[in-house]
Amino acid sequence: MKILVVGGAGYIGSHVAREFLDSGHQVDVYDNLSTGSRDNLFPEEGFTEGDILDYPRLRDAMGLGYDALIHLAAAKAAGESMVKPEKYSLQNLNGTVNIINAALERGIARIVFSSSAAAYGEPKYLPIDEKHPTEPENFYGFTKLEIERILGWYDRLKGIRYAALRYFNAAGYDVRGRIAGLEKSPANLIPVIMETAVGMRQELQVFGTDYQTKDGTGVRDYVHVSDLARGHVAALDWISRNDKSLVVNLGSEEGLSVFDILECARRISGKPIPAKIVPRRPGDPARLVASSRLARELLGWEARESDLETLVRTTWEAYSRKR
Ligand code: UD1
After folding, report:
1. pLDDT at 174
2. Residue with CA closest to ligand 1 atom 9
3. 156 located within any domain
């Protein structure tokens, strides 16, 4: 198929683009390079530098006979979304409406959308399956859920078929080292640990050690980006074959604590990685773990590279290559 990856120069987008290329698809990328990087583009790809808020440019870029589009262009810092809702409304909501409307104008009837476990909010039970109530605790999660609902209406009214993939905590780098660009100003745990390991930051702040978890730190379901990437290919295949839309979790079904990751990173990097315990970050639940049963059953998908060792080793390799 001929595929446009919107946000394909970003951290997850570049892994997704790589996976579609490896699966024999033709791939072009549309990205404004605000958080993405030219280093993340591959020679086989066509590239348009453009913003999703620039409707005419977006519509022009979509005029090349695409069969599907993958949408990963969004702001994603949950904490920031609580102080800058206007940024998240504009980029995530308005930007996505532009993408869907341009796709409609251009006759692109399949969309794979990067949703998030943040759509669920505080867990009422674990593991979290797709039937879990959706009550986002932060504005970022609200934007993701709202976009899923907009897509639902376009499915009903216009026949657009979509897959909304609810990622848990995306982490790791391509095991073959093919993704060269690092995230700019990351806020997520593993890149922050790596920036500390290579001396870009003085210390890691551990947000609370008083949670009801095995070691008191927050537990999350970290899913390797290459596993996520395979999920996109499988999801597009599924919506194409079944002519139906899909909302599905992508998670490893394993819970790892902040200390699990910190210890592993110290061992693999051989660096001390200073850490300071600070109070909890507002809005952080104690534990979040996915059920990926639906993805297994419908897509035949499961996480293969999401073990602690691979997550940390591949990220360390990406960071140590850059130093
Ligand atoms: C959040 C969202 C998730 C979203 C992701 C995107 C929620 C509940 N989760 O993940 O859906 O896809 O952002 O960025 O909204 N930590 C530290 N020190 C740090 C950074 C993190 O101790 O410097 C801890 C956190 O308290 C947490 C864990 O590490 O326990 C993971 O945090 P982070 O990587 O920021 O991701 P989430 O907040 O879980």
Report:
1. 97
2. 118
3. yes
